[in-house]
Amino acid sequence: MLFNRDLLKQRWITPDFSPVVIPERLAALNHDKYNRLVGGMVLKYSIPVFYLKSGTIIDICCGSGFGASILSKSGYKVIGVDSDPQIINICKLRETENLKFTVGNLMHMDRLNVGKFDCVTLIDAIEHFQKEDQPKAIKKIMLCMNKESILVIDTPLNRVSYKQNRNHLWVLDWNDFGDLITSAGLSIVDRYLIRCDLGKQSYIIRASDRPELNKTDYEQGIDQVIVAKLEA
Predict the structure, then answer these.
(1) What is the pLDDT of residues 143-185, one digit of tens each?
(2) pLDDT tens digits for range 76-112
């Protein structure tokens, strides 16, 4: 079961989802973004399965721990890290022998001494960093990687890079997202596009080139995912 029973049974008093989206909360409130957000998370966190049969994964900026839980149910040993102690308390409800959570700030990963992992995931996170902080964040992530590790990172796909709102401090277009990764010293292995629109047009596809999309496509929401490794 992907959902946590205790969270599903909880009575959510307010529809305020800041600063983190809790899938069980979306489900309980029958929120209109449920299919898009939860469906997208399931697809994104399924990507490591294509590259790793087993191994260790660190899910940085893990939020409510839903994605880390998906990974652990796929057979990986997972640790989730988030800077918010309150959300880590929710994550603790998901803990198992192969799934643990700890409080930690991405920008201070060197202080955690968690070691190296076969896979690092950063999902629904990089767009919440200022433009000037995004390259620093990627460098911090790389501290958890060895030469065989993969990074799975996503962000909304935009026509141009810009500050979108008070939560999405710097959203990226196709080219800038790629440049962010390669400029840090990583090699792009694969790129994907993900769209979840009320279950009607959901897909994940491998895309080697910038997609030809119209304004409506961008408005309805498409995520871009990069799988990367350290440069040889």
Answers:
(1) 999 999 999 999 999 999 999 999 899 999 999 999 999 999 9
(2) 999 999 999 999 999 999 999 999 999 999 999 989 9
Query: Which of 124, 125, 75 shows the shortest CA–CA distance to 99?
Result: 75
CA distances from 74 to 56, 114, 162 (A): 11, 21, 36
Domains of the chain (ranges, CATH numbers): 23-230 (3.40.50.150)
**Cα(82)–Cα(224) distance, integer angstroms:** 22
- State phi, psi for 34 to the nearest 5 degrees: -55, -55
Two tokens, residue 19: 């600063």
DSSP string, 16-42: --TT---HHHHHHTT-TTHHHHHHHHH
With contact defined as beta carbons under 8 Å apart, do 192 and 224 qualify? yes
Which spans in the chain are helix H? Answer: 5-9, 23-28, 34-44, 66-73, 85-91, 134-142, 174-183, 215-220
Q: How far is CA 3 from the centre of its chain?
A: 17
229 Cα distance to chain centroid: 17
Eight-state DSSP code of residue 167: S
The pTM for the full model equals 0.94
